[in-house]
Recover the amino acids of this structure.
């Protein structure tokens, strides 16, 4: 089963006085009000055109009307199961489930037995007088050390008020229109994990293993293409898949990082030609705001994206929230990379300076394997350090992240569980599985035959559980 | 017994809603009775409150904005009212209430002679739309 949200609401079965009341209530939505007020300024800035902005406003308004209607109808009822609620409303069931979880995140609804297949929903008893929750701007997340530097907030900001430079996020209050879109899309402001879990749970074709999340299949694979093999981090699967997608014209462009002169200073890039992909191979373990250029990719019909789990989660959340931002329309393939932890830009320099006797310019490869952080320099020499000794340098956000294997990607890749020169591949969706199998058919990728899944599984599970261990509860500093 | 229409007149400061005007509005119009509510000296307008009026059963809203016509261009400090009215009309239309139940009239003292024409046109439109359907539904409930 595929989870399909239909953001064009049809209120056909709703009584007019109830619909008008919900509409009147919806017009208090603060996203809508702020964006409507600043409409002329936003159009002048030009990130969104008239049609896109109207689509955003309409989607906010329609979804808020539906939520207000659902909320009013449930206000005086006893806790109801999701299946019972679905029957009571004339909206697509996927939308109702999404809206219920969304209202939970807005503090309007409680979800009882969240892990059960059919959880109970209840309007909170402790609702404040105002049922309109206001979100601050995303600097609240940054100030709470929860920013994963995905760059999504700066890409979607309609007035370009958010600046991301190296490790810093700065909201220009003189430009900010307090529309709250940044906070809404931020993967760490509020989580839609429970909803995403529910969506996956509905798909009976998926297997589940703790640590791996929901998936279709696991493989150990490597590229067959020599030009990719010689520059690849492990098995060269990410580059091979992108090559396949571009060559087969399944996407118009891919977003990933591109290595230019300095190994530690790659650029987030949009790549249209398969021939340029060699410059994208290799990991740097430094946070890059990969999603900060999503708005520049709006012009394409179909794109693919390679990113760390935190960024993949941002995209997944962005696609789920009921705001039709044009940035999410064309993302067809999400390729996630395993990540134990990564480093802020300045901290990686400090780490290299403090712990390794090498110059940054000499480094040609970085790797994290079996709890060891490893550097390779241009002479071929390798230097290593226990990952535990690197913890102090890693991104603050990583301490709160439990996603090792990019659980919300279409296809996840990493070295854990596979031999040297091979990559572990976890396919998680039909389209992820399809492109992987077609890349094999096209002789771009080879897989290990008669692969026993269980050793890979158990290894990933062990590392993933270690990552999930001791994650402190997330607390956003409210002032 | 004819149809009864509830009209709200919203006006910005400087617009005098005199009794002559009111009598022009409520005079017998082909078996249609008209109830007028007034909101005078308004300096702000909000989508939220306009929608609330329709939820409460208002059939149409006439918004008078005081200003001056200079070289064929209307100048007023309340020009954003137009944006709000357009958006509210658009929302109402999506909810099945015909687009145009809120009408703006940019008012310059010089066009007093056109007042009757404005009102007649608005009434024609409202009659075409019929009363706010929410009234019937609320009666049923």
């Amino acid at each position: 089963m595929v989870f399909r949200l239909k953001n064009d609401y049809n209120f056909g079965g709703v009584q007019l006085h109830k619909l008008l009341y919900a509409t009147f209530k919806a017009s208090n939505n603060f996203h809508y009000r702020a964006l409507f007020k600043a409409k002329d300024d936003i159009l002048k800035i030009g990130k969104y055109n008239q049609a896109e902005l109207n689509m955003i406003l309409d989607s906010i308004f329609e979804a808020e009307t539906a939520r207000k209607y659902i909320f009013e109808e449930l206000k005086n009822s006893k806790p109801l199961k999701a299946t019972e609620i679905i029957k009571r409303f004339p909206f697509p069931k996927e939308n109702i489930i999404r809206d219920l979880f969304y209202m939970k995140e807005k503090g309007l609804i409680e979800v009882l037995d969240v892990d059960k297949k059919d959880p109970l929903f209840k309007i909170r008893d402790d609702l404040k007088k105002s049922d309109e929750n206001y979100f601050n701007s995303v600097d609240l997340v940054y100030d709470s050390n929860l920013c994963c530097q995905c760059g999504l907030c700066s890409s979607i900001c309609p007035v370009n008020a958010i600046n991301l430079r190296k490790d810093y996020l700065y909201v220009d209050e003189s430009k900010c229109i307090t529309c709250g879109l940044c906070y809404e899309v931020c993967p760490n402001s509020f989580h839609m994990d429970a909803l995403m879990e529910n969506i996956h749970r509905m798909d009976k074709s998926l297997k589940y293993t703790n640590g791996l999340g929901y998936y279709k299949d696991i493989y150990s694979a490597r590229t067959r293409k020599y030009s990719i093999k010689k520059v690849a981090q492990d098995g060269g699967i990410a580059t091979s898949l992108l090559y396949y997608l571009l060559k087969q014209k399944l996407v118009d462009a891919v977003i990933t990082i591109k290595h230019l002169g300095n190994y530690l200073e790659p650029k987030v890039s949009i790549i249209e030609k398969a021939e340029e992909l060699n410059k994208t191979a290799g990991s740097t373990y430094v946070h890059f705001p990969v999603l900060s250029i999503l708005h520049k990719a709006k012009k394409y019909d179909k794109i693919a994206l390679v990113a760390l789990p935190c960024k993949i989660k941002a995209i997944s959340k962005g696609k789920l929230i009921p705001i039709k931002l044009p940035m999410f329309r064309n993302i067809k393939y999400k390729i996630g990379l395993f990540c134990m932890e990564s480093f802020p830009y300045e901290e990686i320099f400090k780490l290299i300076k403090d712990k390794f006797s090498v110059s940054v310019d000499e480094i040609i490869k970085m790797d994290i394997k079996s709890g060891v952080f490893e550097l390779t320099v241009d002479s071929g020499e390798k230097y290593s350090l226990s990952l535990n000794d690197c913890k102090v340098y890693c991104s603050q956000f990583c301490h709160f992240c439990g996603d090792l294997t990019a659980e919300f990607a279409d296809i996840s890749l990493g070295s854990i569980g596979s031999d040297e020169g091979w990559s572990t591949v976890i396919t998680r969706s039909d389209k992820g599985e399809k492109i992987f199998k077609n890349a094999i058919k096209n002789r771009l990728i080879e897989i290990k035959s008669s692969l026993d899944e269980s050793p890979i599984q158990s290894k990933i599970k062990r590392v993933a559980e270690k990552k999930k261990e001791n994650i402190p509860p997330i607390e956003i500093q409210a002032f | 017994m004819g149809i009864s229409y509830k009209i709200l007149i919203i006006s910005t400061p400087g617009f005098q809603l005199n009794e002559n005007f009111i009598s022009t509005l409520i005079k017998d119009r082909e078996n249609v009775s008209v109830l007028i509510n007034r909101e005078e000296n308004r300096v702000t307008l909000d989508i939220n409150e306009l929608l609330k009026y329709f939820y409460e059963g208002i059939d149409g809203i006439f918004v008078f904005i005081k200003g001056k016509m200079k070289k064929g261009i209307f100048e007023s400090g309340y020009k954003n009212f137009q944006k709000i009215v357009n958006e509210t009309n658009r929302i109402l239309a999506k909810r099945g209430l015909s687009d145009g139940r809120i009408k703006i009239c940019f008012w310059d003292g010089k066009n007093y002679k056109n007042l009757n024409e404005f009102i007649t046109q608005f009434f024609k439109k409202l009659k075409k739309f019929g009363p706010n359907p929410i009234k019937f539904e609320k009666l049923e409930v």
